[in-house]
Design goal:
With 74 residues, the chain is of the alpha+beta class. It is built from two helices and two strands; from the N terminus they run ααββ. It has a two-stranded antiparallel ribbon with strand order 1-2. 1% of the residues are buried. GO terms for molecular function: histone H2A acetyltransferase activity; histone H4 acetyltransferase activity; protein N-terminal-serine acetyltransferase activity.
């Protein structure tokens, strides 16, 4: 993603999630969230309108946890 797209994704995530994070035990950290969102393993599905403007996103990663069975969702 371009730097502008990363910033858009971060801003949208912050607008929608910061309050929920602050109300949880996790808390919110701009620095940690940006690091998470720009990891090499980060993947995005971005929904764009007819003018190619981003309107929604899904951020995900494929992680394997040690000592756990694989889980596949579909």
């Amino acid at each position: 993603m371009s730097p502008d797209e990363v910033q858009w994704a971060f801003d949208l995530t912050k607008r929608n999630m910061e309050t929920l994070y602050e109300e949880s035990e996790w808390g919110w950290s701009d620095k940690k969230k940006m690091e998470e969102m720009t990891e090499d393993t980060a993947r995005y599905l971005i929904v764009r309108d007819s003018e190619d403007k981003g309107v929604a996103l899904s951020h995900f990663r494929f992680d394997l946890d040690e000592n756990m069975d694989e889980v596949i969702y579909w």
